[in-house]
Amino acid sequence: MKERLNLLQQANVISAEACQATEIAVSLIGEQLAVTPDNEQFQMAMTHFARAFDRIRTGAPVDEGLDPDIFDEILADDGFEHIQSLNQRILDQVGLVQVPATENSFFLSNLFSLYCASAAEEAAC
């Protein structure tokens, strides 16, 4: 994961700050969920996080969030409270104070997918 982030930074796709913030997010997720950074879904989620971090910091967030019907399903899941808590912890640690709802819906969606992958991994053990 670190190599991927470094490549994105070297190619000027993400900033150094986004790289550092994403490394923090990777660590926090690793502490909370049974999913490893070599997981393709994890890498995709963290790449999105890094790009979104820069968009938020530059005042250019996405205009539309996750489809409301899909987001409602995530909100209704029994694990949503855990996901929301982890999301807030990540945002606090990386200094994202005001995150537009559009970007946050994708953050939560990505964490939800990792939460589900983690549950599946734990069930397989």
What this model shows, in words?
The protein has one domain. The protein has 125 residues and is mainly alpha-helical. Helix 2 packs antiparallel against helix 5 and helix 3 runs antiparallel to helix 6. It is globular and about 40 Å long. It has six helices and no strands.
What is the fold's blueprint, element by element?
Layout (H helix, E strand, L loop, with lengths): L1 H9 L5 H17 L7 H18 L10 H9 L3 H15 L6 H24 L1
Helix pairs in contact: 1-2, 2-3, 2-5, 3-6, 5-6
Helix tally equals 6
Strand content: under 5%
- Number of beta strands: 0
Q: Average pLDDT value?
A: 94
What is the radius of gyration? 14 Å
What percent of the residues sit in helical stretches (DSSP H or I)?
over 70%
Structural class: mainly alpha
Number of domains: 1
Shape from CA axes? globular
Report, as a whole number of angstroms, the end-to-end distance.
Answer: 24 Å
Q: What summary fits the major beta sheet?
A: none
Summarize the structure.
This protein has helices at residues 2-10, 16-32, 40-57, 68-76, 80-94, 101-124. It is mainly α and 125 residues long.
Main features:
125 residues, mainly alpha, 6 helices
